[in-house]
């Protein structure tokens, strides 16, 4: 019998998840995953992006309803159908992105977190409770401080304080140190570890950093492609074993790419030369810090790394969507400042992630989106007017060349499937509707969410561009994709190059360690 009884507010909770499976359409996100987190432990959950980590913990807190699976809290089977049910059992989650209200004070945010908040707050009594709580809190904050004025580290501390103030006994931390400096990360995780040792809290932390696993965690579970591939006490395992579980290979195994990439390009004038590049992130810290990288003509260079290590900022800086804080860029030996005019003149093209949102205007037609690169030039522009006939002819040529499935060039591009949006953007960027082919192509996660056929077509287009002499910088969170396409692999960690090697010599354990921030050992 499932027991919905309220939780005991005292002491850390023990949680077991047994046989969890979850499918989203054709995607099997979880496949019979089981996980046990002992009371008072600090437990790490590892895995590449897309391994199923977030789906698993969101199923635990009732954000998703798993297709199969049983939850036991303190050895009693419980039903968790919503986050409210999880909260009633003392289970909470700190999400990767802040949920605090910037316009409110620290005190107001803490009061708002209370699930039994009344319509009218008795502020005198509430502030007395808050003051008493802050006297023993692991991260004392000024109750009168407005959240908008807090630093990123202080906002993360406030997120944790909200959970502690509402008496959570089991806390899921989703990449809690992604916006923290190393010193702040050590402080936050150290305080959480102390609460675990005191028996007040149990922590399940989603992380990609081996430093955090071996510095703070008692046990670790690894997921890969929706399945549990390994679990151990931290004291009984090592970095190579974890990297092997994450990558699906034995430690030290060197694998051959699924499809042999082209030989490394002959050295010469680089198609793209990045020297000492610095790019600021959303929180003001450097997301890319002194990056130096080259891409030769006829070469695909793959950029790997866990999401949030500077890949998005790198692509944004190279395409003009984010300002450059330092360093220099050059294309074919000439200084490159990424503007629309410069990209046209230097034949630089891009395929950003989520192209419907980042490379298209959704309500415009397929034909109009295919014209975004050359709408202001002949043959589309005739005097002050846009030639409808030329636009249609260009669109039909691009649709045919790249096999875009659409009712016609007048259909809004937002009505197309993801794969067909990708095909349309590639038609525009790879020269099917331009005067000259691309010399440099910047690509980010080109096959995310696409089916097998669409993925195969996109990969074929990238190889064809490479074979025609285009230099391709391919940023992807899919390591298999990088190994299949790139002749050279670069791993980014905290905005730095943690590892660089020819793909044919890729050591999966070293790649895994580099992705986890183990810079010294991975080099």
* Overall number of strands: 22
Strand content: 15-25%
Residue-averaged pLDDT, rounded? 85
CATH topology of the largest domain: Rossmann fold
In CATH, the architecture of the largest domain is 3-Layer(aba) Sandwich
Gyration radius over CA: 25 Å
Q: Tell me, what's the shape?
A: globular
Structural class designation = alpha/beta
Number of helices: 18
Number of domains: 3
In short, what is this structure?
This protein is α/β, with parallel strands linked by helices and about 525 residues long. The protein has helices at about 55-60, 85-90, 105-110, 125-135, 150-165, 180-195, 210-215, 240-245, 310-320, 340-345, 355-360, 365-370, 390-400, 420-430, 450-465, 480-485, 510-515, 520, and strands spanning about 15-25, 25-35, 40-45, 70-75, 75-80, 90-95, 170-175, 200-205, 220-225, 225-235, 270-280, 285-295, 300-305, 325-330, 335, 350, 380, 385, 440-445, 470-475, 490-495, 495-500.
Question: What does this molecule look like?
Answer:
The chain is an alpha/beta fold and 523 residues long. It has three domains: 15-237, 3-Layer(aba) Sandwich (Rossmann fold), CATH 3.40.50; 262-347 and 438-506, P-loop containing nucleotide triphosphate hydrolases (Rossmann fold, 3-Layer(aba) Sandwich), CATH 3.40.50.300; 355-435, no CATH class. The protein contains 18 helices and 22 strands. It has a six-stranded mixed sheet, with helices on both faces. A hairpin with a 2-residue loop joins strand 4 (68-73) and strand 5 (76-78). Helix 3 (106-112) packs parallel to helix 5 (152-165), helix 8 (239-247) crosses helix 17 (508-515) and helix 14 runs parallel beside helix 15. The longest helix is centred in the middle third of the chain and has 16 residues, at 182-197. Mean pLDDT is 85; it is low at 1-8 and 254-260.
